[in-house]
Amino acid sequence: MTDKMYQFMDHPADIKFRSFGSNHEEAFSNAVYALTDIVVDHTTLESVTSKQVSAKAHTYEQLLYDFLEHIIILIDTEQFLVSNVTSISISRANDVLTLSAQVSGDTNTTVTDQKTKEPHPKYQTQGDVKAITYHEMSITKGEGGLIEVEAVVDV
Amino acid sequence: MNVPAVLFTDEALLSDSTEDRSIQQAKNVATLPGIKKGSFAMPDMHQGYGFPIGGVAAFSKKHGIITPGGIGFDINCGVRLMKTPLFHDEIKKKVKDILKEIVRSVPVGIGTNTETRLDTQEIDTVLTQGCRFLADNPHVFESDISRCEENGQMKQADASKVSQKAKARGKAQLGTLGAGNHFIELQVVDEIYDETTAEQLGLKQGQILYMIHCGSRGLGHQVCSDYLRKIETAYPEAIQQLDEKDLMYAPFDSKTGQEYFSAMAASANFAWANRLMIAKNVRSILAQSTEIEPSTIETIYDVAHNIAKLETHTIDNAPEELIVHRKGATRAFPPHHPDIPADYETFGQPVIIPGSMGTHSYLLIGTEGSMHKAFGSAPHGAGRKLSRKKAMQSFSAQSIRNDLETLHIELIGDSEKGITQEAPGAYKDIDDVISVTKEAGLAKPVLRLRPIGVIKG
Q: Is B110–A75 a contact, with Cβ atoms under 8 angstroms apart?
C-alpha cells in the first residue's frame, strides 16, 4: 500500500489539501485519500469491492479535476468510499492525457446495531464533499523531484 | 465599464475582511462586462470563489454575463422557516425525542433517501416543477408553495440542460440534509422588535418555529461543475483577463449562458422541493408527537441565497431587466412588490438570516431602501472568519457540546470534526451583521430567534 502522503492546509471557507508523490500517479492517488479523509477516516474502511475509474483531459489540472469528480460521484450515487487506489496509470498521446485506475473500498450501507437494534450507517462519516474546484489548484514538481498537488474542495 | 465596489460593513466586520481576499474579489466583480451600479458586498462578506460570499451583482440582460462564481456550487442553498402553534413550555421536555425522530426520517451527511428514490421521469418533474411536485401530498399545503421565493418554481428551468451525471447524484437525495453548515433547528421566538409585523405574521414571544438550511445537494454541485467546464471550453480568452479563474463567465445572451441559466433554474427547483420535503417530514413528526393538526404548522417563507434571477430594477430612472447574482446573499423585496406573496403585500418579503450553530437567527423584512442600495438584497448569515482547519485546532467538540448544554440547546450531530468546524467562534458575530444590515437600511429586523435543538448535517 502506498504511503498516504497528504496534508490539509488553511483555507478561509472550505478545505484545501496538498498531496505528494514521486510521480503524477502517486500524487493523484494521495489526492484521492485526502478527499476521502474529508468524508470518513479512511483507516476504518474495508476493501470489499473494486471499481474502475478513468478520465481524459488536455492538462494535468483538468485530469485531476475529472478524476476526483468521478470519486465524488461514486460517493454520492453509490455511497462508495475508497480505501485504496490499487492501480493507476496516466499516459499521454498527442494532446490527450488518459488516466485509468482501479480503486477498492466499501459501500456505506445501513447496518443494525446489535444491542440497540437501531439502524445506522456502517461507517461514521465526518463531512461531505460538494465538488472539487479549480480554486488555487496547482500541480508542480517540487524540490527533490516530488510532484506536489494542491486543490480546494468545496464542502 | 467599471463600477464601484460597495461594502456594507462596520469597523469590526471590515477588519475580518482584510484577513482574506474578499475585498479584492468585490473589486474584481466590479470589472465584469455589463455590470450595473456597483459590485455589492453584504455585512457577512468573506472569501469565496471569484465572487466574495455575500456578493451581489446585477448585469444587463442583453450585454451582461452570467457566472457560476456568482451563484456557487450549492445552487439555491437557502433557508425555509416554519411556524407552529406550539410554545416553548409545551415541548421543552420532548425536544431530544423530536430531534431523534427527525434524524430517522431526514438523512444527514452523505446519506441518501432510500425511501424516495426518484426515477427518470420523476427527477425531470422535480426539476421542472420544484415545490409543485409535492402539491398532492396530504401534508403539503398551498401556502408552503406560495410563501416561497418564485413559488418554489423558476419557470426558466429546463431539465434537459441538466446532465445525466447530475441527475444520478440527485435521484436519491430529495429530502436529505447534506453536511457542512447545513442544519435543521428548532427555535423559539426570543425577542420581538417590530410588533406590528410580528402580529401580521402570527408570531408571538415564546412561539416554536423551525428552520431548515440546505440546498440542491449533489445535483446542483454537478450542474455547477458541468457548466464551469462548458464555459471554460466556450470562452477561454475571457479567462485570460481574469484575476481568478473562478470568475469565468458566459454572455447571458449566448447559447452557453442560456443553457447554464436554465440548468441553474432546474437545480434551484430541486433545492426548493428538497427543503419542502424536509419541512413536510418535520411537520408530520411534530404534529404526531404533540398531537396537533399538521395544517396548524405553516410556512413563513423560503429564501434562496445562492442564485441568479431575472429581475426588473431602476437604472438611470428607467426600469431595466437585469440578471441579478446573489452569492451568499438573500433577496429582500419591499412591500407592494409584485413578486412577493399577496398575503405579505402590506409589510414586505420576509428575510431569514440564520446565525451559526447555537447562536441567534433573525427574521427581517425587505425595505424600499434596499431596492435602491443593493438591488433588494440582504446578508445570508454570519459569515466565516476562521478556516475549518483553525476551527478544528481552536475548539473541541466536547466543549461546544458543553456550551450548548449550558444554553439548554440539544445537539444531534455525530461528527466531531463537523461540530468543531461549525463552532460559533469560527463565525462573525451575527448580532453585528444584523445591526449593520439594519443601519444600512438593507432589511428591517422583526424578531430574533433562539435555538433549542439543532440537527447538524
A: yes
Give the bridge partners for B186, in sequence order. B210, B453
Contacts of A80 (CB under 8 A, 6+ apart): A49, A51, A74, A105, A106, A107, A108
d(C-alpha B112, C-alpha B127), whole Å: 18
For chain B, the average pLDDT equals: 93
Residue in B53, B222, B417 closest to A13 by CB: B53
Give the tens place of pLDDT for each residue, B384-431.
777 787 888 888 888 888 888 888 788 887 777 777 888 778 887 899
Tell me, what's the ipTM? Answer: 0.89
pTM of this structure: 0.94
Q: How far apart are CA B130 and CA B135, in angstroms?
A: 10
Ordered DSSP codes for A1-20: -----EEEE--SSSEEEEEE
B244 contacts A127? CB cut-off 8 A: no
Chain B residues within an 8 Å CB radius of A76: 110, 112, 168-169, 173, 218
B201-210: pLDDT as tens digits: 999 999 999 9
pLDDT higher than 70, residue A4 = no
Q: In the numeric block, which cell numbers belong to residue A84?
A: 485504496
Window 91-120 of B: residues touching A by CB (8 A cutoff) are 109-112, 114
Query: What is the C-alpha separation between B151 and B339, in angstroms, rounded?
Result: 9
pLDDT of amino acid B225: 93
A11 chain-B contacts, CB cut-off 8 A: 387-389
Per-residue 3-state assignment (H helix, E strand, C coil) for B274-302: HHHHHHHHHHHHHHHHHCCCHHHCEEEEE
Neighbours of A141 (CB within 10 A): 12
Neighbours of A71 (CB within 10 A): 25
Q: Which residue has the higher pLDDT, A119 or A145?
A: A145
How many residues would you count in chain A? 155
- φ/ψ (deg, to 5) at B111: -65, 150
Of B20, B165, B418, the CB nearest to A127: B418
Catalytic residue positions of B? 380
